[in-house]
Amino acid sequence: MRVLMFGWEFPPHITGGLGTACFGMTKGLLKNQVEVLFVVPKAYGDESQEAVRIVNASDITLDVTKEDKKYFDENFSYMEINSSIFPYASPETFTEIIHEERQTEVASISRVFSEKFEFSGKYGDNLMEEVSRYALVGGKIASRHNFDVIHAHDWLTYSAGIAAKHATGKPLIVHMHATEFDRSGENYNENVYNIEKQGMEAADRVITVSNLTRNIVINKYGIDPEKVVTVHNAVEPVDKKVLEIKKHVKEKIVTFLGRITFQKGPEYFIEAAYKILQKDKNVRFVMAGTGDLMEKMIKRVAKLKIAEHFHFTGFLKGDDVDRMFGMSDVYVMPSVSEPFGISPLEAMRSNVPVVISKQSGVAEVLQHAMKVDFWDIDAMADAIYGLLHYQSLSNSFIKYGMEEVDNLKWEIASQKIAAVYKDIVDIKNKNS
Amino acid sequence: MRSICMYFQVHQPVQLRKYRFFDIGDSNYYYDDYQNKHTVKRLSENCYIPANEIIKALIAQYPERFNVAFSMSGVAVEQFQKYAPEVIESFKELAQTGNVEFLSETYAQSLLSLGDISEFERQVKAHSSLIKEVFGQQPVTFRNTELIYSNNIAEKVQEMGFKNMITEGAKQTLGWKSPNHVYKSSVAPELNLLLRNYRLSDDISFRFSQQNWSEWPLTAEKYVEWINNSDENEPILNLFMDYESFGEYNKEDSGIFEFLRSFPEMLIDTGKWEFGKPSRITEVHKAVGEIDVPYVISWADEEKDITAWLGNDMQQQVFQSLNKVAPIMATCTDKILLRDWNYLQASDNFYFMSTKWFSHVAVQHYRNPYASPYEAFLNYMNIISDFLIRVKEYAENTVKA
Question: What DSSP designation does B47 have?
Fold first, then answer.
């Protein structure tokens, strides 16, 4: 089995969990006899290639016909004016471009230009522009390689996946790591929503990272439940470096770590902290991370007069994250909507008991965690208080938690993904 | 004539309300009254009353041949008195037939036989006087919480003056021996032991309505045939189960009540069997040997051990906390504190904190109101924290006074 996989980033160049997840998944797939051809917009050359062949989309020379170039130029210029908005009518337009190009290739219509596209591969203002260009290249790459299935990760790559499917007729699997609703709540970007919807509609199978996400996909995007499969995320086992952390305060530490945005529910953490501090002053709360709600959160903490016990660290990375976990007595993830949520697993691996919201995908796979509704501040405060005061409770979490996390292996998750590949290829073969 | 000993356990724990840490020191009422009332009412309608009617009819039909035993926790008696007095009346009628034996147990269905032994004794005595008061019988047969048993417990039970004790026919203690005889304790020679035949008991209690069971549906004919086919040299058969098996674990539409009506009838009509009271059976059938139980057993799960209640750190922490104040509670005269002490000790509270079920959710306890053992522990620990503060204050005030 050979898969052409479209991603947006790959270790070590990552801005979020997507790259890490893809890395674990490809390694797991390899163990399940699946070969992966991984396409990223810009390969730096130092990506880990132990499991995959990285194809750099920037190296692809794109041939476009005169008519297409005209169309492309018109839209391209439009894009430059307003680069943060998706400029094309629909991803299908791209597919058509690719498709026509491929069909007419034999007829050797004159090439008006031959151009290599440079992809920055970074999220930012030109994201939509890059998504479109990525799509254009997708079909081209697809026609140059041999594979059995196409697998596209998150909306950024769906257009490329669709293009590849049209170019080759191979089955397409799209992977929902997060939906636009998870990222933006009800104020979602309609263009992104449309790309997601079209990607899932064009796909032969949709893989979701949790049942929570599966339900969103079915209910909010109207995707046929029959073709939506949940494969829970996993984590890569790590050689745990034992960090000897010195805590410089005598109080217990309760930590929130993540983007300070609506989706992560930071305000519920603050309200729970307030409840606990009314009863017990021997606790410090830490909100690590940054985001658009940070200022509002600082104001709320000041208003509640708990600033002496409530600290903001700003953005943490690398060792600082490990150090923060090392100092923590309880980790809290009060997310309002979390397709999966890998950070509690990292906390558990550092022997930190976790309180997680029931509105997270990870709650579906964890047993050794306190689960509360994100809005239920009383329950959240109670869970934190219990973990701080009742030693046998925190001990149990530490005792069973590590083992539980160690069992969430990509090898097992990838087995399910490989089964999805096999299933769809078998159906394709039967029908042809 | 061969004897069948049927004993039914009647127990309803007092369910605890959601109790948060900020309630500690602020509120000392721990119970979910609405839920308790609702549960007791439902069970009395679906289970206790209809099952009692069948037992009553069987006694009327076979006054010489049909007897049964009940063990009713003190906590259950209190809840019936409060929410469903008709259940007490129904059991009183049964008691008056003379064909029903009431067993002794701890008032609170506690685990104290494994902890503070003098408080254990006090709870057993409190239960006996309650049974005497309500049903007019002085119990002579002891049944420990969850059929927990060991040599040490047997010695204590004999010392308290009981003639018989009921426990599990656990493989690890019986070895090749059959549970279908009367035995004696190896360390308490005056104490007769009746051992549960767990296969035939669980066929009714747990498997009766399991449609994926190879023997489903279990008809009275089939069950009677199994019993009749057993070795004729085995004089007794002990069927011990929760009374909630009739109408709760197995719902009315499973045919469980019809089954309860029919199989005793069929067995008695063979002329080979009678249904006896424990105290009578141990007089008729003499003990054939001794049972040595150095390690604690119970009627739970495959393992027949106590890990469902005291298997993890959380359960042990709670049990230690309770035991620590047992000496104070032994002399406590504060009625409210004593009530809480009793209600909090029920073994069910410990069971809800078990982490054993993570691997097989199917055997989850039907009464369990908690989503996870951690939630159960958290809630219980908050309550215990408040309770322990009150006990401490009580002790300090008593010393001063």
Answer: I
Q: Read off the pTM.
A: 0.85
Query: How far, in Å, CA of B227 to CA of B237, rounded?
Result: 9
- pLDDT (tens digit per residue) in A13-37: 666 677 788 888 988 998 899 988 8
- Whole-number Cα distances in Å, A217 to A199, A209, A226, A395: 12, 11, 12, 38
Work out the mean pLDDT of chain B and round it to a whole number: 94
Tokens of A209: 């990272």
pLDDT 10s digits, A43-89: 666 666 666 777 766 665 544 444 444 433 443 222 222 222 222 22
Compare CB distances from B22 to A279, A368, A392 and report the shortest one's residue: A279
B303 is catalytic: no
User: CA A386, CA B173: separation in Å to the nearest integer?
Assistant: 40
- Return the residue matching tokens 């007729």: A169
Assigned token pair, B274: 């009678």
User: Which run of H or E residues covers position B280?
Assistant: helix B278-284
Please judge whether A386 and B378 are an interchain contact, meaning their C-beta atoms are less than 8 angstroms apart. Answer: yes
Closest to A42 (Cα-Cα) out of A57, A54, A53: A57
The radius of gyration of chain B's CA atoms, rounded to the nearest angstrom, is 21
Q: Which of B320, B315, B103 is nearest to B194 (CA)?
A: B103
How far apart CA B382 and CA B23 sit, in angstroms, is 8
What is the chain A residue with the closest CA to B20? Answer: A382
Helix, strand or coil for residue B250? strand
Give per-residue pLDDT as tens, B34-79: 999 999 999 999 999 999 999 999 999 999 999 999 999 999 999 9
Residues of chain B contacting A390 with CB distance shorter than 8 Å: 314, 317, 377-378, 381
| Amino acid letter, A201 | E
* Best residue of A275, A356, A358, A367 to probe chain B, by most B CBs closer than 10 Å: A367
Q: Spell out the SS3 assignment of chain A.
A: CEEEEECCCECCECCCHHHHHHHHHHHHHHHCCCEEEEEECCCCCCCCCCCEEEEEHHHCEEEECHHHHHHHHHHHHHHHHCCCCCCCCCHHHHHHHHHHHHHHCCCCCCCCEEEECCCCCCCCCCHHHHHHHHHHHHHHHHHHCCCCEEEEECHHHHHHHHHHHHHHCCCEEEEECCCHHHHHCCCCCHHHHHHHHHHHHHCCEEEECCHHHHHHHHHHHCCCHHHEEECCCCECCCCCCCCCCCCCCCCEEEEEECCCCHHHCHHHHHHHHHHHHHHCCCEEEEEECCCCCHHHHHHHHHHCCCHHHEEEEECCCCHHHHHHHHHCCEEEECCCCECCCCHHHHHHHCCCCEEEECCEHHHHCCCCCEEECCCCHHHHHHHHHHHHHCHHHHHHHHHHHHHHHHCCEHHHHHHHHHHHHHHHHHHHHHHC
Contact A378 B20 (CB under 8 A): yes
Helix/strand/coil for B353:
coil
Interchain contact, B377 vs A386, CB within 8 Å? yes
By the 10 Å C-beta count (0-12 exposed, 13-18 middle, 19+ buried), B289 is classed as exposed
> Which two structure tokens, joined as six digits, stand for A264?
């992560």
User: Tokens representing B91?
Assistant: 């059991």
Among B146, B168, B244, B274, which one carries the catalytic annotation? B146
Which residue of B378, B380, B381, B389 to mutate against A (max A Cβ within 10 Å)? B378
Query: What token pair was written down for A415?
Result: 């087995």
